Amino acid sequence: MSRNVTVSIVLYNTETAEVGQLFNILANDPALSKCLVINNGGAEKACALADSLGFHTIHPGRNLGFGAAHNLALQSLRSEDAPYHVILNPDIQLDTGSLAQLASAMDELPQVGILMPRVLYPDGATQYLCKLLPTPFDLFLRRFAVGPWRWLFENRMARYDMKDFDYSRPVYVPVLSGCFLFTRRSVLESIGGFDERFFLYMEDTDLCRRAGNITRLMYWPKVTVVHGHAQGSYKSFVLLRLHIRAAVAYFNKWGWFHDPARAARNQIGLEELQGDR
Question: For 14-52, how does the pLDDT look when each residue is reduced to its tens digit (9 = 90+)?
């Protein structure tokens, strides 16, 4: 097995216990070429563990945000020959060999530029992380439709979350979650990585939208990982403000109400979904 996969992980106020298992699994994956760990602040001990395992750590000295920190890692990888790069959250748990399995899948899927495995909650429940490209109303409903009003919009929210397909089968989708993106580095380089105007939230939606103009995005359930998925903006007013700010930046960039490209991409995704059943 060739070492053809690089990984970047962004830490912020992360304890060693939170990433110890993940780091050890990655260190033993036969496909791993290089792992970069970016310390956005408060993760010195976790970075010391990464150093001890032979990973490379980057300390920018301030919180760059999610996308900008991953971009910094990508810049550091320019001399690497590995064709695949993984954008990975620190709260992911995976099995030894998962990277190798995903690399093999990508070798067989030249039309695919970004792959996301099946993602479960720690209790084994499925996380519905495949999404359509959002409208402002979709994001408003997901965040604020609560209590007796929520049932009125259940069908719309289920459609946006793509809950109406068999999550045991591969399918092309418009948007994958930034918690685990297995990518072709050539695709990331072609689109210039993350748009750094997004400090936190919406950066993965924006990246997937731009990547979708040149390649296919696929959900790949033959590999399964576990994700803590804290949903911080539901618990913190500061994070909620960041989420709202990111949504405003996203729709300012792509359009608020008249977005034929979004509608067309979503329709193609739904047609492929129907055909995959």
Answer: 999 999 999 999 999 999 999 999 999 999 999 999 999
Burial class for 244, CB neighbours closer than 10 Å (0-12, 13-18, 19+): middle
Cα 33 to Cα 183: distance, rounded to the nearest angstrom? 14
pLDDT number for residue 123: 94
Question: In whole angstroms, how far apart are CA 1 and each of 4, 29, 30, 180, 225?
Answer: 9, 10, 6, 22, 21
Residues 6+ apart with CB under 8 A from 60: 38, 39, 40, 69, 72
The backbone region for 130, taken as left when phi is positive above 0, alpha when psi lies in -120 to 50, beta otherwise, is beta
DSSP 25: H
Amino acid at 44: E
The pLDDT assigned to 233 comes to 43
In tens, the pLDDT along 223-234 reads 999 998 655 444
For 223, phi then psi, to 5°, come to -125, 135
d(CA 81, CA 50): 22
Residue 55: CB atoms within 10 A of its CB come to: 19
**CA atoms of 157 and 137, how far apart (whole Å):** 10
Rounded CA separation 193/185 (Å): 9
Q: Identify the CA nearest to 92 among candidates 117, 67, 112, 72.
A: 117
